[in-house]
Amino acid sequence: MSNLLTLIIVVCAGAAVALQPSINARLAQKAGLLESACISFAVGTLGLGIALLISGKTNVRGLHETAWWEWTGGILGAFFVSATILAVPKIGTAATMAVAIAAQLLTALVLDHFGLFGFGGMQIDLKRSLGAALLIIGAWIIVRH
């Protein structure tokens, strides 16, 4: 896959992440917070299952070699979805996403800096620190209106 196609997919994923909390918050008005999070994950699981069947590619051979914590990504995703369902009606989609993105970037910088989970190893330098500071300032401006 080319870098351009990868970037296009990530841009679409970013737009989807911005849409998801508002859609889920609307559903929560009718079904409740945790119920809407469960529905979101059930529909997502169904969609992934269909994509897996269509692709014809499965690879589960290495699952028995995984560490316990490698199974926790879904719990983190459930927490994120539930937190954004809670936040969007209170502070709006833009403020919710601004704070979430700033927190994601700061966490990612730490993960990369220390090479945690076996990825990254990219040191936090002045340019990266400046970029993070600008993102935090941007999030603060969005939250403050």
Overall description:
This protein has 145 residues and is mainly alpha-helical. The chain has one domain (3-144). Helix content is 77%, strand content 0%. It has five helices and no strands. The longest helix has 29 residues, at 3-31. It is globular and about 45 Å long. The relative contact order is 0.09. The mean pLDDT is 91.
Q: Quote the beta fraction.
A: under 5%
Indicate the radius of gyration in whole angstroms.
18 Å
Q: How many distinct folded domains?
A: 1
* SSE order: HHHHH
Query: Low-confidence stretches at least 5 residues in length (pLDDT < 50)?
Result: none
The main pleated sheet reads as: none
For this entry, what is the oligomeric state of its chains? Answer: single chain
Decide which structural class fits the backbone: mainly alpha
Shape: globular
> How far from one another are the termini?
40 Å
- List the total number of helices: 5
Percentage of residues in helical conformation: over 70%
Whole-number mean pLDDT: 91
Number of strands: 0
